[in-house]
Specification:
globular; 10 helices; about 40% helix; single chain; binds uridine-5'-diphosphate; binds nicotinamide-adenine-dinucleotide; about 15% strand; two-stranded parallel sheet; alpha/beta; Rossmann fold
Amino acid sequence: MKRVLIAGGAGFIGSHLCELLVKQGNEVICIDNFYTGSKRNISRLLDFNNFEIIRHDVTFPIYLEVDEIYNLACPASPIYYQNDPVQTLKTCVHGSINLLGLSKRLKAKIFQASTSEVYGDPESSPQSESYWGRVNPIGIRSCYDEGKRCAETLFFDYHRQHGVSIRVARIFNTYGPHMRHDDGRVVSNFIVQALRGDPISVYGDGRQTRSFCFVSDMITAITKFMEVSEEFCGPLNLGNPVETTIIDVARQVVDLTGSKSKIVHCPLPYDDPRQRKPDISKAKKVIDWEPNIDLRSGLIQTIEYFEKDLSGTTA
Ligand code: NAD
Ligand code: UDP
Ligand code: UDP
């Protein structure tokens, strides 16, 4: 069993990763500054002797002894990453440098949670790893998009210059239990609005698309990628290739919750990408993975989680 560091482990995806690796018997250290993460997401793990949590901001150096590192530290929701754009950039850039420095000293393999946002507002669909992207460098989403692009550069330069073993995944929209109810991303917003009987806020005409991957499928992919042989560093697209319009997500959520909420249209945020759909042929080939939870079943599980969360009965 390994000693594993998970930066951003109290967040949505990170908490599921902590749970899997702890239950497999690894020694897991979670570091998090709790900006968007919460102790509640990992409270069930506190009874395990092989789980430890440290409040730490990755923009500062950290000295620990581990065998593997997962870097998920970074707010993923536009509302949160735009709230303090400079800190978002520092987290992406200084945070990556510190964790890569740690990884270099320890000769420990390191995973980077990059994003489909590196493709920006794409000119072609689906997006494959060879596409360089169309990103606005000075807009309100740039702190995240360019921060993540710079982080990818750092990962590949530490690999080429210092021989650090890296795994860079470009994660597409992922959803499921442990998202914050005030996270601001589309799936959590729509479910919370439907459960409260509030209007469902579709931005723009709702014809923009995203491709939604359920979190358990994503965790399988991330851990498989970490285990793949030394030669493959990525970047690797991870996501569900089934593309859905936002208006369709709104209708499905209303249908599955039986809500009386009305769908309303609100202004489209600046620089909102029109389309996003991953080409996952590389992931199929290299890690023999494809998602198997469809949007309907994933939404049902997420709705159940938020029903408990909003009534205060979540563990
Ligand atoms: P999240 O906001 O729930 O989790 C991020 C975690 O990082 C939180 O626990 C937060 O407190 C922590 N964090 C933020 N800044 C930090 C800092 N400076 N130091 C230490 N901890 C810090 O987001 P998520 O959806 O779980 O995303 C996890 C990772 O995956 C992020 O890097 C994100 O960019 C990437 N990603 C997520 C998605 C998605 O759809 N969920 C898509 C693409 C990429
Ligand atoms: N670092 C860290 N933990 C370690 C090793 C390095 O946090 O165990 C940080 C440290 O802040 C350093 C950064 O990682 O500045 C980059 O390390 P690297 O060795 O690449 O650069 P250098 O120390 O030579 O500037
Ligand atoms: N969106 C929406 N209503 C909301 C939240 C988001 O219509 O309440 C739209 C948003 O404009 C975008 C899509 O849903 O087109 C996905 O948004 P999210 O913030 O979840 O992720 P990202 O834009 O980063 O893919």
